């Protein structure tokens, strides 16, 4: 889902902007007409932005709901961008943040050690069973990805392999908005305006692992098995290593479950293990980008725990701080961390807000809630229910091509033709229509994306509720989302 950027020039003074003025700048300000609401939580004012599919002004957020300034209550089925993993308005997190701010609200990481940062680092290392040994605490997924690329490169300088300058990534992946992260990512639409600025030569690219669109039929008429599929995909990775020169590759970067670019597509069983083997064979590193799929979203704290592999570098964000502070991190495995320790090497990198104590205090509290409330178990249980109910309720719909996901991370891909899997014309903006209808008529917020079918085509929505969702609310969520989908396709 895109967003417009707007600046506020009146910091500290009362803002003169109104919802109407805001609407003029809005990404969603097209001419789609709203329908009368069928929801009992309908707005008290007919035009508060929700009715037009615009971004309404938010008054508050609590638990699983957003509340606009005009009183509309919207069920949060996606945590914004897959962020609000323990729901909104938790007083215990606010208390932890305020308490840290009372002690000190900032310190430069170069001058002091901050207790919450140290505790958070210890928590993260311990959460991996010591497999990841070092942590850089940052503020955004893009920063974490940029850092991972740079650390991979610098590691090879330390070990005397300066010729390693290339990376391999996949189409239909997203690794962030900054130029390095955008260069390595394979999200066609998000790259397009900036193509001339992106690094062209250093990033080799392979196809995604997308069984819905790529699984072949064998000559004997049987469908390609997981093993055959993985073998074919990994042969393509091997080929890319050979094309670039195997000893020129720093790392392969992958999302274990692809988020915004592909709509919650888990890797086929065995794929990540096989990819890691190729990296190991050629002495390259494996970076797992768990910015969206990590920190419990797919049912284990780290998505790689379900894959039987350990990455060399791992990025986390989103559910890490649950939206209470902008928290991300780069986790470093033993190969690199060991070299740094043994050789006394220092990563030539840093950000002003690295190791921010308030960010650390918030992330620590969010993570302690996830652990103490046993929320990962709930993610697995409610995730299974969510997937099952989505498939039962709309799996047979003629325009629902695929429903896929893991944990509380589910994507629904829309197609014009269910048999041929033909995507819709991107200009119809089908996913956006579903988003708007969900918001306007069913009062539920979903995350949208385009490009999952390749070359910028293909529409999907993503369902990513908070980890503490109940079975009752999962049922309600499915009904609302299904209702929105049915209403949109009545029009096509
Ligand atoms: C897998 C992945 N990597 C990186 C990013 C970039 O994170 P941020 O938007 O916090 O910079 C995202 C954001 O959606 C993501 O999903």
Automatic annotation (TrEMBL):
<dbReference type="Pfam" id="PF00202">
    <property type="entry name" value="Aminotran_3"/>
</dbReference>
<dbReference type="GO" id="GO:0030170">
    <property type="term" value="F:pyridoxal phosphate binding"/>
</dbReference>
<feature type="compositionally biased region" description="Polar residues">
    <location>
        <begin position="29"/>
        <end position="47"/>
    </location>
</feature>
<keyword id="KW-0663">Pyridoxal phosphate</keyword>
<dbReference type="InterPro" id="IPR005814">
    <property type="entry name" value="Aminotrans_3"/>
</dbReference>
<dbReference type="InterPro" id="IPR015421">
    <property type="entry name" value="PyrdxlP-dep_Trfase_major"/>
</dbReference>
<dbReference type="GO" id="GO:0008483">
    <property type="term" value="F:transaminase activity"/>
</dbReference>
<dbReference type="InterPro" id="IPR015424">
    <property type="entry name" value="PyrdxlP-dep_Trfase"/>
</dbReference>
<keyword id="KW-0808">Transferase</keyword>
<comment type="similarity">
    <text>Belongs to the class-III pyridoxal-phosphate-dependent aminotransferase family.</text>
</comment>
<feature type="compositionally biased region" description="Basic and acidic residues">
    <location>
        <begin position="17"/>
        <end position="28"/>
    </location>
</feature>
<feature type="compositionally biased region" description="Polar residues">
    <location>
        <begin position="1"/>
        <end position="13"/>
    </location>
</feature>
<protein>
    <submittedName>
        <fullName>Pyridoxal phosphate-dependent transferase</fullName>
    </submittedName>
</protein>
<feature type="region of interest" description="Disordered">
    <location>
        <begin position="1"/>
        <end position="52"/>
    </location>
</feature>
<dbReference type="InterPro" id="IPR015422">
    <property type="entry name" value="PyrdxlP-dep_Trfase_small"/>
</dbReference>
<dbReference type="GO" id="GO:0005829">
    <property type="term" value="C:cytosol"/>
</dbReference>
């Amino acid at each position: 889902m895109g967003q417009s950027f707007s600046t506020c020039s009146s910091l500290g003074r009362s803002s003169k902007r109104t919802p109407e003025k805001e609407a003029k700048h809005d990404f969603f300000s097209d001419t789609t007409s709203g329908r009368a609401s069928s929801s009992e939580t309908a707005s008290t004012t007919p035009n508060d932005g929700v009715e037009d599919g615009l971004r309404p002004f938010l008054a508050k957020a609590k638990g699983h709901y957003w509340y606009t300034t005009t009183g509309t209550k919207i069920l949060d089925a996606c945590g914004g961008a897959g962020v609000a993993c323990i729901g909104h308005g938790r007083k215990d997190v606010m208390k932890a943040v305020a308490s840290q701010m009372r002690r000190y609200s900032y310190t430069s990481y170069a001058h002091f050690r901050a207790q919450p940062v140290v505790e958070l680092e210890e928590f993260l290392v311990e959460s991996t069973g010591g497999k990841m040994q070092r942590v850089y605490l940052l503020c955004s997924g893009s920063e974490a990805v940029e850092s991972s690329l740079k650390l991979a490169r610098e590691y090879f300088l330390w070990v005397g392999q300066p010729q390693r300058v290339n990376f391999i990534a996949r189409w239909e992946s997203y690794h962030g908005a900054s130029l390095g992260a955008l260069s390595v990512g394979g999200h066609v639409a998000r790259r397009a305006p900036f193509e001339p600025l992106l690094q062209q030569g250093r990033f080799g690219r392979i196809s995604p692992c997308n069984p819905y669109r790529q699984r072949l039929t064998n000559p004997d008429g049987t469908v390609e098995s997981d093993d055959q599929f993985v073998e074919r995909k990994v042969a393509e990775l091997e080929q890319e290593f050979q094309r670039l020169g195997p000893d020129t590759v720093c790392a392969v970067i992958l999302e274990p479950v692809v988020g915004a670019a592909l709509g919650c597509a888990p890797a086929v069983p065995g794929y990540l293990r096989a990819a890691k083997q190729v990296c190991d064979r050629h002495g390259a590193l494996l970076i797992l980008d768990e910015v969206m799929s990590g920190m419990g979203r797919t049912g284990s704290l780290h998505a790689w725990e379900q894959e039987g592999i350990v990455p060399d570098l791992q990025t986390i964000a989103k559910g890490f701080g649950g939206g209470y502070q902008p928290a991300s991190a780069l986790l470093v495995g033993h190969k690199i961390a060991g070299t740094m320790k043994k050789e006394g090497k220092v990563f030539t990198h840093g950000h002003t807000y690295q190791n921010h104590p308030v960010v650390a205090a918030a992330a620590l509290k969010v993570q302690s809630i996830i652990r103490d409330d046993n929320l990962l178990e709930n993610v697995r249980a409610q995730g299974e229910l969510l997937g099952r109910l989505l498939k039962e309720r709309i799996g047979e719909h003629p325009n629902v091509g695929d429903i896929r996901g893991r944990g509380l991370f589910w994507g629904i891909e829309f197609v014009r033709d269910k048999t041929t899997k033909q995507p819709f014309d991107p200009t119809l903006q089908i996913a956006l229509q579903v988003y708007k209808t969900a918001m306007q008529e069913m009062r539920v917020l979903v995350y949208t994306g385009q490009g999952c079918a390749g070359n910028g085509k293909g529409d999907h929505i993503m369902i990513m509720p908070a980890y503490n969702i109940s079975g009752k609310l999962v049922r309600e969520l499915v009904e609302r989302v299904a209702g929105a989908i049915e209403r949109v396709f009545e029009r096509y």
